[in-house]
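Bit of a strange request maybe. I'm writing a small parser for structure token strings and I need a real example to test against, not something I typed by hand. Could someone generate the tokens for this chain?
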Amino acid sequence: MKAMKHDFAWKLKASALLSGCLALLTYLLYRLFPSGILESLTISFGTVFYHFAMRLLVGAIVPRLVHEGAENGKWFCQKRFEEKLYGMLRVKQWKTYMPTYSPESFDLKKHSLEEIIHTCCCSEAVHEWIMLLSFLPVLAIPVFGAAWVFWLTSTLAALFDGCFAILQRYNRPRLIRILDKERKRL
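Reply from user aminoacidic:
Good idea to test on real output. This should exercise your parser:
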């Protein structure tokens, strides 16, 4: 399990590169030999490329926009209903199976608790933006049709990233409580 968590960043980048190359290749083949299957493959690989590349781009940009102390803002504070919701979703049972793009960012040997809490805010914001941008491909429906395919892939992608946003919102209040206890001891 640990190896998968450390390989996640590499797999994400490799998937973006591979799907981008396949989209380009099938597009060029489609231009030379127009056929329905090549058009479908180009659209499919292009959509997959979008989802992977967009995640990498959002992950590079959004953390720079989240200011220090963001965990004290309204957006990042846990709402009253969330604790019950996370219990119903059984977050505690599945959270350890989720891959981490950058495990070293959450390592207490390398970072202070304050830094990790800030990283949780950044990660949550990244996944929330990804959820929104997952629906951008539906704008291609008028051009390509197949609305159900675009809606299905966009919804599944958003739900996938929703799990990561939930995970950050689940973990952060616990980390804040630990930090508060540490501060009271001093």
